[in-house]
Amino acid sequence: xxxxxxxxxxxxxxxxxxxxxxxxxxxxxxxxxxxxxxxxxxxxxxxxxxxxxxxxxxxxxxxxxxxxxxxxxxxxxxxxxxxxxxxxxxxxxxxxxxxxxxxxxxxxxxxxxxxxxxxxxxxxxxxxxxxxxxxxxxxxxxxxxxxxxxxxxxxxxxxxxxxxxxxxxxxxxxxxxxxxxxxxxxxxxxxxxxxxxxxxxxxxxxxxxxxxxxxxxxxxxxxxxxxxxxxxxxxxxxxxxxxxxxxxxxxxxxxxxxxxxxxxxxxxxxxxxxxxxxxxxxxxxxxx
Length: 288
Ligand SMILES: C[S@@+](CC[C@H](N)C(=O)[O-])C[C@H]1O[C@@H](n2cnc3c(N)ncnc32)[C@H](O)[C@@H]1O
Fold this sequence. Notes:
Elements: H1 2-19, H2 32-38, H3 53-56, H4 61-65, H5 73-76, E1 84-88, H6 94-103, E2 108-113, H7 116-129, E3 134-138, E4 151-157, H8 166-176, E5 177-190, H9 196-200, H10 202-206, E6 213-214, H11 215-225, E7 228-238, H12 240-247, H13 254-257, E8 265-273, E9 285-287
Parallel strand pairs: 1-2, 1-4, 2-3, 4-5, 5-6, 7-9
Antiparallel strand pairs: 5-8, 7-8
Bound molecules: S-adenosylmethionine (SAM).
């Protein structure tokens, strides 16, 4: 509960800063203008430069500024007209709005978030974008407020690592997906062992780092939840200099720890499928 409260506090404050127009100094570098505004040194290497300008066209600037993801799940997922998409931890709503455009008026995109200020920001962004096939729901990703077998694609952008009960999140994602439904998620993933100082830091947990799963653990948890065709593809690998940026100000000894995590954290795109019929599949599990 303490962890959840800290997460809610941090992301609520981030949403309020965006709504008040003051930006996200430490985390907000997802657009060039944001980077320019705060100087390259303040760019979070995890959240910066995720969306290209073509995709961003027609999406309110405030939604881009609020982006705190670590990937671009809608660019990597196949989304078809008429499908139902659910974004776990939708934040300011950017991936929900992009998904809604892709699935078109016959489809629907749900965003789920537990933080009131984020939901208010996301609904404001939806109004500004004038997109109607969208609904933002209040709730927790460990207890998704949607019926079984009701969603075609579950997306998420840098949120599952924040949960203290990832098995439950994956079971819930599996439950709401229709048979044959796809899991298409961006998340921070760890390759190898991570120093205890990092694992123990609450600050780094709410910053999407300390709670990250090892790639092998992610695969095992997805398989246990019932998923099939599991694949983890790395999209960005963080080097010592990146680690310096995200470790600074967290109480961790940056000079000692940053070189020890060189290349160990990555952003990844995680794909999996709910088998079309019970008992089918359990074939592939590979790392990209
Ligand atoms: C790192 S931000 C990512 C937001 C968004 N996906 C993006 O790409 O900008 C994490 C978001 O997930 C929400 N969140 C974190 N843990 C959650 C949980 N257990 N249930 C629901 N929402 C959660 C936070 O409120 C926050 O809006």
